[in-house]
Amino acid sequence: MMKLTFRWYGKDDKVTLDNIRQIPGMTGVVSAIYDIPVGEIWPLAKIQLLKQEIQQHNLEFEVIESVPVHEDIKLGLPTRDKYINNYQQNIVNLAQAGVKVICYNFMPVFDWTRSSLAKPLPDGSTALVYEKNIVAQMDPASGSLALPGWDASYGEGGLGPVLEQYKNVTAENLWQNLTYFLKAIIPVAAQHDIRMAIHPDDPPWPIFGIPRIITNRDALDRLVNIVDSPSNGLTLCSGSLGVASTNDMVALVKEFGAKKKVHFAHIRNIKITEEGSFEETAHLSSAGSLDIVAILKAYYDTGFTGYIRPDHGRMIWGETGRPGYGLYDRALGATYINGIWETLEKLGGEQSC
Q1: 3-state secondary structure of 318
Q2: Which of 65, 138, 150, 298, by CA, is between 20 and 30 Å from 202?
Q3: Which residues contact 151 (CB under 8 A, 6 or more apart)?
Q4: 153 neighbors 171 (Cβ within 8 angstroms)
Q5: Is 81 in the active site?
Q6: 70, 199, 263, 283: the active-site residue
Q7: 104, 237, 263, 283: which is the annotated catalytic residue?
Q8: Among residues 83, 266, 283, 307, which one is catalytic?
Q9: How many domains does the chain have?
Q10: What DSSP designation does 152 have?
Q11: CB atoms within 10 A of CB 88
Q12: Amino acid 151: pLDDT
């Protein structure tokens, strides 16, 4: 049986733990420590306090999303060993607090990127969208862009220097630096029974002239073979990989699920409006370009028992809050996932009789 979870951004989140525990089938919360600078050590006491708060609401705290990877590691700078040592200590501290899975990413500078955070859809809801022509006109070095998911530690106008550092970084350079990182952290994770689960790039193609490498089946295969360990695995995000029509999400789940390399699953639907552009939609299969039923069936058929969460949602019913992370549409997504999974279990049980 999979474990249904929900992303929570802490006490400042408009979505409360009371809200989350009322969603049918919800077992746990996915969260992080948000007030420690990137690259620094998360104090064990802060992790334990977060865990206690979540457990007081009858929810588990077994998945972290994310422990950010410092840019010096991605760039392969001489200072990277300091930040890798800190990352190793974070793994140890999180294991001591009972965390089982750490989701992370290796996206240079920018986390998930969109051209609009509140595009009106025909049904009156608003959603995150990525329009390639608009993104092509953006200048992140100007200091005028500030989108959720981006590392705010650079400060206003602070992206210029780090963008300059990436000017001559190739995709293969990134792979070399990721390899160095994984060879240092995966043994520590394995020793402490932590499963590292890399999140694919979102979107899965270069942006602002900077390469991205966790983008397709071959990249996922290369990643899991860098260090052959059960602790070196994936967060499969349907809404990240699925925006490229060349990525077959069902096939990816079947292949890497069968290898037990998927430790965390993000389920959301998207609608490809043209190659290189997309908008986020309701989770319902017919609302977008992905067959969510087929994706979940692939998880079920491979015996997936890991963690699943409904990913980004639209803003519906007049809700305001963190773009992509309101309560209502994600709760609907969770219920949709539950309904599909229950059906698969009952049909599977009947077939085995």
Answers
A1: coil
A2: 298
A3: 38, 68, 71, 109, 111
A4: no
A5: no
A6: 199
A7: 237
A8: 266
A9: 1
A10: G
A11: 18
A12: 46
What is the DSSP code (8-state) at residue 289? S
* Catalytic residue, candidates 130, 166, 325, 328: 325
Cα separation, 91 vs 83, in Å, equals: 12
Q: Tens digits of per-residue pLDDT, 193-218?
A: 999 999 999 999 999 889 999 999 99
Distances (CA, A) of 131 to 68, 77, 119, 202, 241: 26, 33, 11, 13, 16
Calculate the alpha carbon distances from 67 to 30, 139, 285 in Å.
12, 27, 31
Partner residues linked to 216 by β-bridges? none
User: Which candidate in 13, 202, 311, 329 is catalytic?
Assistant: 311
| Known catalytic membership, residue 192 | no
Measured at the CA of 30, the angle between CA 25 and CA 32, to 5 degrees, comes to 160
Report how far apart, in Å, the C-alpha atoms of 337 and of each of 16, 177, 202, 203 are.
21, 36, 22, 23
Q: What is the pLDDT of residue 348?
A: 85
Residue holding tokens 């077992």?
A: 27
The catalytic position among 312, 328, 329, 336 is 312
> What is the residue-wise DSSP string for 49-108?
HHHHHHHTTT-EEEEEE--PPPHHHHHT-TTHHHHHHHHHHHHHHHHHTT--EEEE---S
Is 283 one of the catalytic residues?
no
CATH number at residue 236: 3.20.20.150
Confidence of residue 144 (pLDDT cuts 50, 70, 90): low
What is the span of the domain harbouring residue 101? 3-352
Q: Any idea which residue has 């979870």 for tokens?
A: 5
Q: Which amino acid is at 137?
A: Q
Helix (H, G, I), strand (E, B) or coil at 319: coil
Dihedral angle over CA of 107, 99, 85, 79, nearest 10: 20
In the Cβ-directed half-sphere of 10, how many Cα atoms lie within 13 Å? 11
How do residues 178-189 score in pLDDT, each as one tens digit? 999 999 999 999
* 70 is a catalytic site residue: no
**266 a catalytic residue:** yes
